[in-house]
Specification:
- The chain is α/β, with parallel strands linked by helices.
- It has one domain.
- The protein has five helices and four strands; from the N terminus they run H-E-H-E-H-E-H-H-E.
- A four-stranded parallel beta sheet has the order 1-2-3-4.
- Strand 1, helix 2 and strand 2 form a beta-alpha-beta unit.
- The longest helix has 17 residues.
Length: 133
């Protein structure tokens, strides 16, 4: 079996999503071990992924997942600067982890919701810290 590149894998996911009637997809544009250490690379690849999703009539929404190098709102700002029509998922747990939950209420960041960039709001009950057994 031929190994697929990132865009081929993503297109398969879009095909499946469309087949089950999904209208939105959540994208963790950074995550895992490398997290946002190569955010500039992720920023560059977003356009191709968004175009593939658009081809399937799927709204691609980038989530504010945990960062190891910087912080999610900074990345949201950079993404919006490069892609003015971008859509986001705002996860309250991820925002609380980075102490950014209150930023939505600050004038500097009201563009996130006033201009309809946030398309999904994920509420979590999170008081900080990690769970361990």
């Amino acid at each position: 079996m031929k190994a697929m590149n990132l865009c081929e894998q993503f297109e398969q996911n879009c095909y499946l999503a469309k087949s089950i009637g999904a209208e939105k997809m959540v994208l963790h544009l950074w995550d895992g071990r490398t997290s946002d250490t190569a955010f500039h690379n992720n920023l560059h690849h977003y356009a191709a992924l968004d175009q593939i999703a658009h081809n399937y009539d799927i709204d691609l929404c980038v989530e504010n997942v945990v960062c190891t190098t910087d912080h999610p709102i900074k990345h949201f700002c950079a993404l919006r600067q490069h892609y003015p029509k971008i859509h986001f998922v705002f996860d309250t747990k991820m925002a609380a982890f980075h102490q950014q939950l209150e930023l939505l209420y600050e004038k500097e960041y009201e563009w996130l919701w006033k201009h309809e960039h946030i398309r999904h709001y994920h509420l979590n009950d999170y008081a900080g810290g990690l769970f361990s057994i």
